[in-house]
Protein: Transmembrane protein 135 N-terminal domain-containing protein
Amino acid sequence: MPPPLSFFSILAIKYIPISLYLSADAETLTSKMPSLSESNSSPPPPSSDAFDGAAAAERRLREAEDRLREAIEELQRRQRRAKMLHPPCDHADDSCIANAIGNLCQSFLLSYGVRVGIGILLRAFKLARRKSYSSLLDLKLRHVQQLVSEKDLIVREEACRVGLLFGGFTGSYHALRCFLRKWRKKETPFNVILAGSIASLSILALDDSNQRRTLALYLLARLAQCGYNSAKSKNKFHLWGSSWRHGDSLLFALSCAQVMYAFVMRPESLPKSYQDFIQKTGPVAKPAYKAVRECCRGSPVDVASLSSYLSTVKGADFVSLQEFPSIMPCSVIHPGTKSCLAQNAYATSNTFKKTFPLYFSLTFVPSVVLRLQKFMDAPFRTSWLAVTGAVRSTAFLSCFVGIFQGAICLHRKVASQDHKLVYWFAGGFAALSVLLEKKGRRGELGLYVLPRAGESLWYILVNRRVLPDIKNAEVALFCACMGGMMYYLEHEPDTMSPFLRSLIRRFLASRISNPGPPSNRNPSYNHLQTLDAIKKPNLPNQEPESQSSENYDLESVPGL
Structure:
């Protein structure tokens, strides 16, 4: 028994022959009309009946086309309602599992390559310091082994953990999006938030709780930025002073003030790696900071260990040390140099030499790994931009160290009593060196240092029992913040900073985060477009616009 005809099949059977008959009627009537050539030679008198019949036929044809259009639009509306019950997965692969695994592998390789590349480049600079720079060009087996050996290059475990973090999140996120879409039978913002939160459990790939806490606080700062931008765009909330020209510099200064205070007075509140970075970058030794800390707290100074340190410094003058001094003199802060001005100049230049390889690695390696095609097209320009960016960032950090050192020495010239808040204000004043950076980089630096300051404050409040010490609280915070970040990425991407938005989209590498025009078109859509083309023919001046948008719409390319 044949299946019953649907409403739209009956419409198609009813109206399509009518349209064909009416079009044939119109052709018959128009064929009976004299041609243009004959009318030019001997124009016959026009017949009113013929014109009336042609107009009536054309009117009936248009009415049939309108009814057919309405039927097609109704069909499309029903198809859209049916798709809402079972929304399709918008990814290139037919299989959701294959799409998730492919994105997992791609993100793992990208993050692993970035981390290993930075480690190899830093190792190369370290070898260049010990030997001549020409030794790097001598690609003997011994030099290659020194450059990439497991003994000297201990970054592979960390690179694997970073790869599992990014790759695990990307693969899990895509798999959960497809699962929730099919299970809930609808696509809502809740799917995005839930998938992002559950996929963020990949942060457990990092075994260091300090790193997890730093990432969680960094995402919290970014989420607050997105929330504020969203509320501001909707005229729901506006913070006083947010329109300041140097508001980002103020944020960086306040964050640096807390970080430098914590480094001098409460170093245990900062991550060990961050402590080591500040210590190696600055010119003051650990015993001197320890003596300053004990002096500010009113505790007895360990004179024996301090004397032992001063005896190892070349050119140090004899200093009469006391157990309870009011302030530590400059001869203890920089014992090897008598002049404070010379010490500040030395600190600035030495910091530039030590940190340039780091900034060059952080600038050059991501530009090659994440934008390989751009680097292949213009390698010299990319390298030059990396060098200039590294020089600018290194100059900023060098001036920061010099200004901080100068503020400490200046305080000892004009005051006779030390105070712990001096180091808070010195850190904020030294942060003015951020004005050497590009305008777009200042906000990024402020949001990078802000989590460090928040982490220090968190530790101090927990240590004083103001906040409870909850185990794995940083994991829960990271999951909650990542769910919110994915919501803003999918539904309000303009609230995110361009740098973070492009970075997340690059690692997600999916058409979900890089929406493009849908490629599947049903026959009713094509027929409807044909009817529109009859009324709106393509004009020649419209072709270049369509071609340019088709060729240069890079956001529609997956992975860019």
The first helix runs from residue 7 to 32. Residues 1-41, 510-526, 536-560 have pLDDT under 50 and may be disordered. The radius of gyration is 35 Å.
